[in-house]
Amino acid sequence: IMATPNEDSSRINLHVVVKERWYFIVLPVFQLADRNFNEWWYDRKRDLKRTIYGVYVSYGNVTGRGDKLKVLAEFGFLPKFEVAYTRPYIDKAQKTGITTGISYSVSKNMPFRTWNDKLDYLNSEIRNRERFYTYVNLTRRNRFYAYHSLDLRWSRTHVSDSITVLNPDYLIDHKSLQKYFQLTYTYNYDRRDHVQYPLKGIAMSLQVSKLGLLPGDDLNLLYFYGSFRKYTPLGNRFYTNSNFRFRISVPKHQPYLQTIGLGFKNDLVRGYELYVVDGQHYALSKNELKYQLFSTKKYFSWIPVRQFNTIPIAAYLNTFADAGYVWNKYPERSNTQLGNTLLMGGGIGIDVVTFYNIVATFNWTVNRENQKRFFFSITRDF
Fold first, then answer.
1. Up-side HSE of residue 344: CA atoms within 13 Å toward CB?
2. Which of 54, 95, 254, 280 could form a disulfide with 74 if both were Cys (CB 3.0 to 4.6 A apart)?
3. What is the pLDDT of residues 114-123, one digit of tens each?
4. 3-class secondary structure, 69
5. How many distinct helices (H) and strands (E) make up the chain?
6. H helices of 12-169, where?
């Protein structure tokens, strides 16, 4: 940004130079089918057969109005195909947007239950699960930092007889087919400096979802979800953040497929990355203190594409402490040792942040059971 005085008035001219990302991106997909890298490394013996490969295509300005088309084709351990189209504004006030999409996936080797807080897999050469859903999502942004969304989707899941025998409650009552409509309302308030790796600001989210809208639907479930995150710079390159989230669902008797506790994505107590704790309700608190080791940009003149020849990179040393609790109304079904008990974990680590929203995390952790391990993760957001 360069500021120059305007000789004809008291105003100042601002000259802003930006480097835009590519509108059209084609990327190869190569990832693990397991919940995270650590489960694959420690529990699945680094089995390369448990990988997913394919292609991801994102066209960020299809008609010149900021609309986006995404296509995902994955093969390997878990074949999946997805198409989504987003129109950021469909009204003159430019406050209402719409996204439509479809998804289809098949599974041969799949988890059919949780036992001793670990996923039990069925290994097979036949299709044991087919999942399809289609959705329409409306967003409304009345203010700059806050927006509402309303999501309507139809889902269909079919499982083999082997799954219903191994776990009669996978879809409840030995059912092999589950079809239902789902309506979800979400309120988001996001006032952070960056989305992928924020250092300052607050963000909150509230969500209510009803699964099963019509009398003929095969599911009747209601859940509430909420989160609050606060990021505070302390000065001298020190930062702190706190994160609290919860989920409440009814009724008590739920299909295994829809019973969600801690252990997936970022909803976990660090130190328990190798565990899945099922339950109808949970609460989670995550806290960090970090120090910025460095933050710089590297320019590579030999790279001809200007969107890729400048690479930002930053590293943060952090210490963290987490706590969580999962309420499981039927602990005997999973023989859980961690449900209905306070989970606590902490440790130290290093975060490396680079271009296109890629964050690599290296953590050494210890949990309440005095299990000490090194964990690694890498995330990205396009």
1. 4
2. 54
3. 999 999 999 8
4. strand
5. 2, 20
6. 37-42, 161-166
